[in-house]
Write a structure and sequence with these properties.
Layout: H1 5-16, H2 23-26, E1 30-38, E2 44-45, E3 51-52, E4 54-60, E5 66-69, H3 87-98, H4 109-128, H5 134-147, H6 155-243, H7 253-259, H8 262-270, H9 276-284
Antiparallel strand pairs: 1-4, 2-3, 4-5
Length: about 290
């Protein structure tokens, strides 16, 4: 069966990157990674050299090398029968060449595999960075170790996982510290408010006591003033009684109580010079 140039390049390069020297045997070393990229920039090439929009990534389970294949060439890895060289194939080759198809042999295959490795690594890294918990990162770490460690260097991926875990732990510590500081601030603020309230209540108590004291003093002063006024009024009244003529007796109240006889007082009452009330007051004060 005659192979096209691109088919031959694919087969030859596949053997170079495999442990087996026979093409039919080396195919079994390759495994589809499950990674497919649709790249409108055609930023990667198939193992045959064709720039690809639809990129399928395969890894060699023995050598760890990674290749990229297009829709057509990936059929070869499924052990499908090769197409014969036809005019259609030749025309397609010319079209690919005019679109800038690069002969994969024009550059180092190791460099090509490294580029594919970097592409896949970046995909894994992007996947890892989606996880936001230590539990999810540990699960993904176990997955990488069980499924990929035998044929893919996952050190950079494990390092990224550990770095992300450290960042999560750091952020959690920062969060806890922030919460602790906030609790402490709230506690201090509460104590401060309690102290202010206590001071306010104490101030209010002192003010109330002072007001009550002033009120009592005012009441006391008012009462004493009233008593003085009443006493003075009484003294004035008594003085008026003692030193002014009492009734029509021609004598003062003081003289009548201290110097007159009962007979004289009785005569004054009988003569109408003093009243019964005045007569009684004189007798009460003798």
């Amino acid at each position: 069966m005659t192979l096209t140039k691109s088919q031959k390049r694919f087969n030859d390069n596949l053997v170079k990157l495999s442990e087996e020297d026979d093409y039919d045997k080396c195919i079994d070393e390759w495994k589809f990674t499950g990674i497919y990229i649709e790249d409108n920039d055609y930023d990667n090439n198939c193992l045959c050299g064709k720039p690809l929009k639809h990129q399928y990534y395969y890894i060699n389970q023995k050598t760890g090398k990674i290749i990229c294949s297009g829709k057509s060439c990936k059929q070869k890895l499924k052990r499908l029968e090769k197409e014969k060289r036809t005019r259609k194939i030749e025309d397609l080759f010319k079209i690919f060449t005019s679109n800038g198809m690069k002969n994969i042999g024009d550059y180092d295959l190791l460099e090509y595999c490294q580029k594919n490795f970097d592409n896949i690594t970046e995909i894994f890294l992007n996947e890892i960075r989606k996880y936001g918990t230590i539990e999810d990162l540990n699960d993904y770490k176990i997955y990488l170790q069980e499924e990929w460690s035998n044929f893919l260097d996952i050190k950079i991926l494990l390092d990224e996982i550990e770095e992300l875990k450290e960042n999560i732990i750091k952020k959690e510590k920062e969060k806890l510290e922030k919460e602790r500081l906030e609790k402490e601030r709230l506690k201090k603020e509460k104590l401060h408010m309690q102290r202010l309230e206590k001071e306010r209540l104490e101030k209010e108590r002192i003010e109330n006591e002072l007001k009550e004291k002033i009120k009592k003093e005012r009441e006391k002063n008012r009462k004493e003033r009233k008593e003085r006024e009443e006493k003075k009024l009484l003294e004035n009244k008594l003085s008026s009684k003692n030193y002014s003529i009492y009734g029509n007796s021609g004598k003062t109240f003081s003289w009548l109580t201290n110097n007159s006889t009962l007979l004289e007082i009785k005569n004054l009452l009988n003569e109408g010079k003093i009243t019964e009330c005045q007569y009684k007051n004189i007798l009460d004060n003798r």
